[in-house]
Amino acid sequence: MLLRNNGASTLGKILRRPIITTMASFDGTGGLSWDAMRSTFAMFRGGKAAAEDRYISGSLGSITNVGVGQTAVAEEQPEGTKNDAEAVLEDPEHHELPRTTSRFTMSEEVFRAAKTAARGSPESFWTHTLYRGPEQDGVETKVKVHYCRTKHTSEQVLQQYFLNKKVLGFDIEWQPEAYKNMGIKKNVSLVQLASEDRIGLFHLALYPKDNIDDLVAPSLRNIMEDASVTKVGVAIKADCTRLRKYLNIESRGIFELSHLYKLVKFSSSRDFKLINKRLVSLSTQVQEHLHLPMYKGDDVRGSDWSLPLQMDQIVYAASDSYAGVHLFDTLEIKRKELDPTPPRPYNAEEGKPIRLAEGVEIETDEELEPEEAENPTLNKRTYPKRPSPSFYEEASVEMDKLDSDFCIEVSQPTTPMPSTRSRSSKSSLQPKSPLVLAAAELVDSYRSSHPKNKATPSGLRCYFLWYHNPELSLPDIAALLREVPLQTTTVINYILESVRAERLPFEKERLRGVLAELPKEVVSGRYRTLSRACEAEGVGKTKN
């Protein structure tokens, strides 16, 4: 079969639309560093690029898959069988809650809301935000995401939350056009681990140092090299080959979900000859066994994983590793129900054949790793488009300060409730925009970490709205902030004074547009330093 044009590949990432911006440097003291500020801002950004769909779409079960830089292998449909996508839709089980032994589950209400949501809408897709755990003080527990940008914080999080887990979802990301001579951070940018209640995003590309010893937290090495800890994922052997090549991590206890998927699927149908080691996309497995589609956006935009993650990237990158945990659980339930019951497939690093129930080992094709492929087929990668604001409207974001890193908690309740964080006056009849609420959260975070800051809360809120939402015009921002819109000149003043007072980052071209709204004598006077910074050559960093 022909490979779809939105599969995972390295070249697909090169076809991105970079947005060149800079962080200006100008006179002044104090202020947050570029990396720290940019990472903080990124958590709330709901636009531009989102986390990539790492896997090949198309007919469910008809195309095998590998991650970025790995070879996609077409798998033909057996003659006389229905397309797997049609079979899944017709299967009554597909309309029921997926079975699980986990403490974290989707409620019937949440599942039905996703199933009945408009097809292709963000609310119809599977993500980790749908899951809830046991109540604590009468409140359901949400899945927490830890976004760690230093080795020190990563070690703390790994020790406290992941070190004693027996099953973990695993995934990695890297810069799309990375080659061996580009260094470690470009080739292993982000490591993702997930348990049933937490997800860790360990952003090695943002760690301050570049040596292997400064990039590998001891607990990460212990987890990956411990054969008693099962790490599950799709194309996991190739991902761990990359860990060995660039970080000297000899991974053990790695489990390929595609092997278990094939064993369960074709043992049940008695089509034993179809059991092989060819990879099956994560989206296919989620659709078939977790009964909801994974998110696939229409916009194809490169996502540079060596830069601080944006909020929507965090949500979807977290879901990749979290899906592995629930797929393993559900597939194990189904394997154990088979009569006779086949043994679980061997760990991927052992390289052994898949065993049938009777103990007969069948010859299986090895999945191709990048360096093994004779004719690698490179495809475009598909990235989600920005969800509508309603997708994040009821999402709560809780940030706990942890050595400049953050614990992010994202939820997606099905029943809208008024926000408790609204800054609007009591007389306001309009609910706050989710963009305004996100900006307000950032104001609280910034002011708590910068008690001597000189910018006003209103100015900071206006700045965050402007910085994170380039599609909004100045009048749009004025209208969002108040039921009776602010004057545009007030918005301009808020933005410029905040940048000037706190040395906040900005995109040169966009700030030039703001300055252009003012009289020249004002620009050349009060904002002379900002104007010069906008015109400076080679200042700052590139932002995607």
From TrEMBL:
<dbReference type="GO" id="GO:0004386">
    <property type="term" value="F:helicase activity"/>
</dbReference>
<protein>
    <submittedName>
        <fullName>Werner syndrome ATP-dependent helicase</fullName>
    </submittedName>
</protein>
<feature type="compositionally biased region" description="Low complexity">
    <location>
        <begin position="411"/>
        <end position="432"/>
    </location>
</feature>
<feature type="compositionally biased region" description="Acidic residues">
    <location>
        <begin position="363"/>
        <end position="374"/>
    </location>
</feature>
<keyword id="KW-0067">ATP-binding</keyword>
<dbReference type="GO" id="GO:0005737">
    <property type="term" value="C:cytoplasm"/>
</dbReference>
<dbReference type="GO" id="GO:0008408">
    <property type="term" value="F:3'-5' exonuclease activity"/>
</dbReference>
<keyword id="KW-0347">Helicase</keyword>
<feature type="region of interest" description="Disordered">
    <location>
        <begin position="363"/>
        <end position="394"/>
    </location>
</feature>
<keyword id="KW-0547">Nucleotide-binding</keyword>
<dbReference type="InterPro" id="IPR051132">
    <property type="entry name" value="3-5_Exonuclease_domain"/>
</dbReference>
<feature type="domain" description="3'-5' exonuclease">
    <location>
        <begin position="145"/>
        <end position="336"/>
    </location>
</feature>
<dbReference type="GO" id="GO:0006139">
    <property type="term" value="P:nucleobase-containing compound metabolic process"/>
</dbReference>
<feature type="region of interest" description="Disordered">
    <location>
        <begin position="410"/>
        <end position="432"/>
    </location>
</feature>
<keyword id="KW-0378">Hydrolase</keyword>
<dbReference type="InterPro" id="IPR036397">
    <property type="entry name" value="RNaseH_sf"/>
</dbReference>
<dbReference type="GO" id="GO:0003676">
    <property type="term" value="F:nucleic acid binding"/>
</dbReference>
<dbReference type="Pfam" id="PF01612">
    <property type="entry name" value="DNA_pol_A_exo1"/>
</dbReference>
<dbReference type="GO" id="GO:0005634">
    <property type="term" value="C:nucleus"/>
</dbReference>
<dbReference type="InterPro" id="IPR012337">
    <property type="entry name" value="RNaseH-like_sf"/>
</dbReference>
<dbReference type="InterPro" id="IPR002562">
    <property type="entry name" value="3'-5'_exonuclease_dom"/>
</dbReference>
<keyword id="KW-0540">Nuclease</keyword>
